[in-house]
Structure formats: C-alpha cells, structure tokens
Amino acid sequence: MVVPRDSAVGEQSPDGGRKAAKGAKQVAAVKGAAKSESHTALVRRARRINRELAEIYPYAHPELDFENPFQLVVATVLSAQTTDLRVNQTTPALFAKYPTPEDLATADPEQVEEILRPTGFFRAKTKSVIGLSKALVEDFGGEVPGRLEDLVKLPGVGRKTAFVVLGNAFGRPGITVDTHFQRLVRRWKWTEATEPDKIEAAVGALFPKSDWTMLSHHVIFHGRRICHARKPACGACPIAPLCPAYGEGETDPEKAKKLLKYEKGGYPGQRLNPPQAYLDAGGKPAPPLGSA
Asked: Structure pTM?
C-alpha cells in the first residue's frame, strides 16, 4: 500500500501513537476547513487528491476489456446493473460470434439473450446492443462516431457511456460519473450535487479538461478498492488526511486492510486481459466465465 509522506494512517512505528494523533488532527482540520473553504482552496485540495491517487494507482485504466471502439461501447452498455468483471467474462463469447456491428445488427435476439444472460437484464441489453449496432450500420457506416452528440443518439447510450468511449477509445477528455464517482466526490465535498450532469459540471470546473479522463479512472479505482460504499477502509486510506469523510468507515488500520479489494488486497482484478502496467504492479487477471 502506498502512503503519502504526510499521512499517519496505519503507521506501525515506535512513535506511532504521536503520528496517529498528528494524523487525527490533520483529518479534523480538513473536516473543519471543508465546511467553509473557498473555491480556490477546494480546487487545491481536489487537485492534490487527484495527484495522490495518481501515485497510488499509476496503472489506473478502464476495467472493461475491449480491442476497438465497437467492443467498448457494447461492453459499457452491458455494464449497467452488473460488474465489469461479469461483462468481461461474457463479452468474449459475444464478440467471437458477432465481431462487427454488421454481425450484431442481424443477430437472432434469442441467441444474443442466451449469451448475455449472466449480465442480468439480458432482454433489455440485447435490444440495446442490437439496436445500437443497427444504428451504427445505418447512420454511421458501421463505425462508432467520435462525437458526444452522435454517441448519445445510439440506443442504450447516455452521457456516461459516451464519455467512457470518447475518453478511452478516442482520447477525447470526459468525466465518467458512475456510482463510485458520485459517491466519492460527494464524500470529498467537491460538490453537493446529486444529478450526474450537475456533478459532471461541478467537478469538471475544478480540473483542466486534459485531466478529466484519468481523473475518472483514479476516482473509480479508489472507490472500488478502498473507499467502498458500505464499509470504507478509512484506516488503510492513503488520502485520509485530505478527506472530510474520514471516520465513516473502519479506522483501525489492521481491520481496514482486510476490507481492501483487487490488487490492494491481493485479489484478481476485473479484466481478463488487463494492461501490462497493471500486471507489473501486482494485479492479477480475472478468471474467465465458468472457471473454477
């Protein structure tokens, strides 16, 4: 686990008591300051959190397996109401049988439903991926468009999905406001907004546009690995001194370590074919569907 130099969380040293007390004071100061901080102070704190997360997760990446924009847009649509892991375990069979928009556009819905069944809501998802494939063929020459206004016209594609595709398939900056992102930016008091488009606007105003895509990866990685919805691992969190919500989860360092997920806890990640940087950092690829 990477711990910032000024963080006392989880220190196990002879003077650990003094350092822990210092860390507690730092956290208390952040909690108090966040209530009345200026916009400039908020920007500084938000950007510092992002810098710390970039050091913790230098290998952050989209956790859906894909080889081209078509695979990414389909996988992202399928990820609704399920995990990226389950999508990654399901799409190899889908793309082996239907590798192009033309193939999926003319597919038998019942056969697609059977493949997509493990992802949940498989009938609605089948309708969406066949519909978006038909739209790609009929309106875009079988190519995934690289503009937001075109992507959101595709069946099953909203702003969140569109920004995933733009940022990761086309290299165009975008903020992905998924459930993890919404939870963390509110815990950090970056915004009090609850609607995705308002969260997107509020957080986007705190960072240069060039940071948006990687910011999304950093925040989502942290939400999946440490800052969980029900049991945040506060005692194992490297950015605790910057977090106004410290204490909402387990603060005991040893107990908090047991809550860590994926590579932070020594477990496999969500991708069957993760980037090499993730493997080099100790991450393990996920098992395929049906494996022991």
From this structure: 0.88
